[in-house]
Design goal:
globular, mainly beta, single chain
Length: 216
């Protein structure tokens, strides 16, 4: 709420002076009416001066409000801090996540699928079965039907062959930890060993971390 206070002081001095002070949204204008002709019987001139002051005040407060609104608009931030990183046999790997929408929910939200890239291109697929939110889930090649478990795989294209490394109970199954799941942004860590049954080789995935969006 804004309050305007105008105080008229009559004087015999031969000049016109105005003083202003601001206290929050309260504006006080002290007008020294110094001309003999600006007496009480001359209401038209008094009204003219009041209207002039009101015009100045309204212009000032309008500019001030516009400046505040512009500052508020400039403070709007966009969250683009998304990533998928992991070490593969000790070598750093960064996923091609695009806009970060590489997580999907299905089966009423009980299955959470995390990928390192959009679409169904070869790469990481981590499925959390019986998903219930932030906690640690075991990665297993044969997760129990009623347990809190998950499975994971990594596929790479070595033309003309696509090699896939699966999580396996016979080696280090690994875990995936969901740190937070808020506003369709999921953050977590993971590690597991992958086994390729086609050539009997393994890959070790460590220090995996991600922060991704759910693709609606």
């Amino acid at each position: 709420m804004e309050l305007l206070v105008c105080v008229f002081l009559e004087s015999e001095t031969r000049f016109l002076e105005s003083e202003t002070s601001e206290n929050g949204n309260i504006y006080i204008f002290v007008i020294k009416v110094v001309d003999k002709h600006l007496k009480t019987n001359n209401m038209k001139k008094r009204i003219f001066f009041v209207m002039a002051i009101l015009t100045i005040v309204l212009g000032f407060t309008s500019c001030k409000k516009e400046t505040i609104d512009n500052n508020n608009n400039n403070n709007t931030t966009v969250d683009n801090n998304f990533y998928f990183n992991v070490k593969m046999d000790g070598e750093s790997f960064t996923g091609d996540i695009g806009d970060g929408k590489t997580i999907s929910r299905s089966h009423g939200g009980t299955l959470l699928t995390i990928k390192d890239k959009a679409g169904n291109n070869p790469g990481f697929f981590i499925n959390i079965l019986n998903y219930t939110g932030a906690k640690t889930y075991e990665i297993s090649s044969n997760p129990p039907s009623g347990g809190d478990a998950s499975n994971a795989s990594y596929s790479e294209v070595l033309t003309p062959v696509v090699w896939t490394y699966w999580s396996s109970d016979s080696i280090n199954p690994g875990t995936i930890t969901i740190i937070s799941d808020n506003n369709d942004i999921v953050e977590g860590t993971f590690s597991f060993d992958g086994y390729n049954p086609d050539n009997s080789t393994t890959k070790v995935f460590t220090e995996g971390k991600f922060r991704l969006k759910v693709n609606p």
